[in-house]
Amino acid sequence: MTADMLIVFTLLGGAIALFLSDRIRMDLVALMLVVSLALSGIITPAEAVSGFGEPVVVMIAALFVVGEGLLRTGIASATGSWLLRVGGDSETRLLLFLLPVVALLSAFMSSTGAVALLLPVVMSLSRRSGFAPSRLLMPLAFAALIGGMLTLIGTPPNIIVSGQMRSSGLEPFSFFDFTPIGLAVLVAGMLYLILIARRLLPDHSPEADEREGIRALYERYDLSRQLHKLEVLPGSPLAQKTPAEAALRTEYEVTLIAISRSGGWLSSLIPVLANTRMQYGDQLLVYADHACLERICEEQALRVLDCPSGDVSRLEQSAGLAEVLLPPDSRLCGQTVKQARLRESLGLSVIGLRRNRELSDLHFASTELAAGDTLLLAGSWERIRNLGQGRELVVLNLPPELEEIPTHGSRAPLALGILLAMLVTMTTGWLDNLSAILLAALGMILSGCVNLKEAYRSLNATSLILIAGMLPMALAMERSGALDFMVQHLISLIGNSSPLVLCASMFLITSLLSQFISNTATTVLVAPVALSTAQLLGINPEPVMISVAIAASTAFATPIASPVNTLVLAPGNYRFADFARVGIPLQLLALVLTLTLTPLLFPF
């Protein structure tokens, strides 16, 4: 072993130890590795930072912009709503729908791209379903990696082993040669991820956010028991009246939030709909205590209906909440809620009051506001977004859901068209992946689906730095001879073993190396060795090469094994060891299936 090899192995081992210790952020460890490689002299300083210009890093950054376009135009939210509707409150059902979708996308496009596109969808889904992102994102990443096993173009290792066969004068693999084994791994992997891995998956909360979400505000202000749905019965005096004409707040202490008519929601909190007249058969979503509810139902011919959680989810798309504080010099101090006229000045209604950190009764006409009171305001997201700091009110909490509300909803068809065009050009090969994705990102910006500020904010610096920082390690291992040293010593242990042992050995070697360096680089190195060894043993190289290709996609055990894993690392708030705990059993499952099916499909 040379000095250069020793340096590389030491740096790699030190990086892994720091990752496992979880005492230093992973992106900082990656930067430390970049500096160490530059100082080592094994690769030049320019090569040490070359990862930041690698196509895969640029591609991922562009995909973040494309994903932000889907988020800002409401496509991500709509997809999340559909998944939530079909999956309900069951984590199992959500995964049953989510995992095949990402696997199918990964079969025809980059698995990294598939995950980057679905990342905003899953984050929105996680927030609204109440499941921690860590429960969904790792299965998403693993299903994407397995999806790459399904077709020849699903992942670069498949193409590399096929090219190696062709360059050696052998018949290359066809488009669907990988499908039977990939499909078996996908089905078994889904069963594992849904039935077994859920007991191994961490339940990490996302990174600390000082803001409280809508559901937390519901609980703090005890609103869940005050949210009701009423039906306007035939003969009701409310028919053809506006909320103001019906004196819902002044007379009954009832706050009308939205009107459902023919399946559509009409929010009375949006100024343009403030004069909407109620009709027979309308369903009213209101805030009111039980005493007020009984009175208005009796006097105004209304009927109480069940208010399912789906109604709340639909409401949250158009109307939200904000928490504000009354400073001592506010002119609102001493005024009643009615006199404050916040609905007229801000377009927002007061639906909750906390005084001295305790929940307080709120009466529209008689409760006087005091300095230090915190008020819960409800209204359209547009009004909440425009709620600024001032002398009268200090904004304490704008829910994080505000960031998910479409700001460019009218451009959703454009965003969908750009996405489809990107997928078509990538699948058909009209353009290379990088060009197609860069054009899609530029199209999102130029079409107004996302503005420049939103585009820059969408870039996940942690993921990009970690990927870019680890890429030069593969070059250092190759330049120092460390990679060849590892492979040759592992191959020497195989000797004249049986074909099945050869396949298993090649699988384990490829899978192990893929946990720390690019699976593409691993395949480039291992494929010719595997082919030569098979030919020397006088066996059919096809099953050996298939084993190498499948193993290269089993990058499950570390967050640096694949850009796919790195993408979900920060949003899922995962630890290094989380991937090993969930990923290693999946690797062993893929190994067993590959060794079982490959000899049947490609006899030795």
TrEMBL record:
This protein's record includes keyword Transferase: no
Compartment list: Membrane
Keywords: Membrane, Repeat, Transmembrane, Transmembrane helix, Transport
Transmembrane residue ranges: 31-49, 95-124, 136-155, 175-195, 412-430, 436-452, 459-477, 489-509, 516-538, 544-570, 582-602
InterPro entries: Cit_transptr-like_dom (IPR004680), DASS-Related_Transporters (IPR051679), Na/sul_symport_CS (IPR031312), RCK_C (IPR006037), RCK_C_sf (IPR036721)
Residue ranges of every copy of the RCK C-terminal domain listed in the record: 215-302, 310-393
Gene3D superfamilies xref list: Regulator of K+ conductance, C-terminal domain
Membrane topology, record value: Multi-pass membrane protein
Designated name of the protein: TrkA-C domain-containing protein
Species: Marinobacterium sediminicola
